[in-house]
Write a structure and sequence with these properties.
This protein is of the alpha+beta class. It has 2 domains: about 1-35; about 40-155, K homology (KH) domain (GMP Synthetase, Chain A, domain 3, 2-Layer Sandwich), CATH 3.30.300. It has 4 helices and 7 strands; from the N terminus they run βββαββααββα. The strands form 2 sheets. Strands 4-5-6-7 form a 4-stranded mixed sheet, with helices on one face. A hairpin with a 2-residue loop joins β1 (about 5-10) and β2. α1 crosses α2 (about 100-115). The protein starts with a strand and ends with a helix.
Amino acid sequence: METVAIWHEGMAFEGRSEGFSVPMDATPPLGHSYGPTPKHLLALALAGCAGMDIIGLLKKNKQLVDRFEVWTQVLSSEGEHPIVFKSIDLYFKFQGSIDPDMALHAAELSQTVYSGVSAMLCPAVPIHWHLLINGETIGEGSAGFTKLSSVYQTTFEG
């Protein structure tokens, strides 16, 4: 994977990857909000990665999803730099008549086996997820990847 961030003016950058462009900027007073901040993009990457896992698993199990959204709620540190994510809540919101057990299983698999973005973030910041179908909370849990420790040991120790 290769990406580039090209500075335009002020705090505005254009991120490029695989032929796609994404504007980035800081919020006022430093920037002009020409695009999302890098931290917003990180939260979006988490939502998109988890969402792709879940919708893929449900499609594989022939579930008919009318609407699916992944919301993030991020609590950040304040005051001293660096300002970092302290906690993340993911909300998997479904509309339609899907099997709650299948949706719950898909969310659990996403946050314990498949989501690479969750796996990279959860050693540094707690990620808690909530599953809602037609406005009703069906279940919740926390991201945790048992295979992660062996990946990091191989990568960083050897």
